[in-house]
């Protein structure tokens, strides 16, 4: 069972107790919005959902995640490794499970479409000169369709893989409404996240993974690490406070702390947050409201963090020595100040920025 579902359904009381004991105070969160406070429930809906049904909404959320990665990579020059995504692993699972000729044909067609999507992404990054603000409408919609397709493949391992063995019918899930919905959310994100970013190299990890510890929590993987901030995207229309959402983000931070305390050299690669990249802030981003909600970890007491990490270490059976954990906590002075202009500071004006451009595409 997925980490988020465990928390949502409260199916593991021991885990609940550990994460909730010193959960960050929701009143210490702040938002980019000037008209209300974080979790107030007073955000104005500016990117309403254009899809219906739980599966379509989940697909829209996953596709938005990919679009955010694509735009961040395009704007910052970050190395976007598409072959490391869950979609690549899903394709491999389909090929492995294919037994009949019909299933093998489906697997072949799916892989062919996936490779074509990678080529399309590669051209967008390295051949085409446009970026988000200058892309022709058809180009950007085309990229969004690719993101929806990759998100659709991502979900294959969670389904009966061969319920659909007709590639054409399988991809019919990507409707015009779905693409428009993802585009709408993407424009809100891009118009708020990028204008305030300083021109310099950024520390970025997409879908950060926490080595073996993620496996112990059913593949716990965050959405984005960007310049000392750990982000979780929430694409639902719900805008109030949810304890399980905060416990999920808090849990990701705790796993990262344990991973860094272990000094395990195997945690080196594109999917891991390097040992010398601190997490100093937690954040939710809600694209339907263009709202960012931040929590500065300087508000977390060291003795409470130590207690939580020791309990979490025992729960995970991670076998990290208490001395290592204590030394890690002592070193977390949070002196790497968050003095950059944070993404989202121009969000209020972004509701009308590029309106004509948005209407021409969505």
Overall description:
This protein has helices at 3-9, 13-21, 54-76, 86-97, 101-126, 137-154, 167-171, 176-193, 212-216, 243-262, 302-316, 322-331, 347-350, 355-361, and strands at 30-31, 204-206, 224-226, 229-233, 281-286, 291-296. With 362 residues, the chain is α+β, with helices and mostly antiparallel strands. The protein has a six-stranded mixed β-sheet. Helix 3 packs across helix 8, helix 4 (86-97) crosses helix 6 (137-154) and helix 5 (101-126) packs across helix 6 (137-154).
Task: Give a quick rundown of the structure.
The protein is α+β, with helices and mostly antiparallel strands and 362 residues long.
């Amino acid at each position: 069972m997925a980490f988020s579902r465990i928390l949502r359904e409260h199916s593991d009381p021991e885990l609940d107790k550990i994460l909730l004991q010193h959960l960050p105070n929701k009143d210490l969160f702040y938002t980019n919005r000037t008209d209300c406070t974080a979790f107030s429930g007073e955000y104005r809906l500016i990117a309403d959902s254009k899809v219906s049904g739980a599966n379509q909404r989940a697909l829209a959320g996953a596709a938005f995640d990919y679009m955010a990665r694509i735009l961040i990579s395009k704007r910052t020059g970050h190395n976007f490794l598409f072959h490391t995504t869950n979609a690549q692993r899903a394709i491999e699972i389909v090929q492995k499970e294919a037994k009949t000729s019909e299933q093998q044909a489906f697997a072949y067609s799916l892989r062919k479409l996936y490779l074509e999507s990678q080529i399309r992404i590669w051209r967008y990054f390295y051949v085409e000169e446009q970026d988000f603000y200058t892309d022709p409408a058809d180009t950007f919609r085309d990229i969004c369709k690719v993101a929806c397709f990759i998100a659709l493949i991502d979900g294959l391992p969670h389904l009966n893989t061969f319920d659909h063995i007709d590639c054409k019918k399988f991809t019919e899930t990507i409707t015009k409404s779905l693409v428009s919905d993802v585009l709408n959310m993407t424009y809100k994100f891009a118009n708020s996240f990028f204008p305030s970013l300083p021109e310099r190299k950024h520390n970025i990890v997409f879908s950060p993974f926490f080595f073996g510890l993620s496996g112990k929590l059913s593949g716990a993987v965050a959405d984005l690490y960007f310049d000392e901030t750990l982000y979780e995207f929430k694409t639902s229309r719900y805008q109030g406070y949810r304890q399980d959402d905060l416990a999920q983000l808090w849990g990701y931070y705790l796993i990262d702390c344990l991973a860094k305390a272990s000094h395990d050299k195997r945690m080196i690669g594109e999917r891991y947050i390097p040992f010398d990249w601190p997490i100093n802030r937690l954040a939710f981003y809600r694209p339907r409201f263009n709202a960012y909600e931040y929590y500065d970890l300087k508000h977390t007491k060291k003795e409470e963090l130590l207690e939580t990490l020791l309990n979490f270490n025992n729960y995970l059976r991670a076998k990290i020595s208490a001395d290592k954990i204590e030394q890690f906590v002592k070193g977390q002075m949070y002196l790497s100040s968050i003095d950059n202009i944070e993404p989202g500071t121009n969000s209020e004006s972004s509701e009308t920025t590029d309106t004509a451009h948005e209407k021409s595409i969505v």
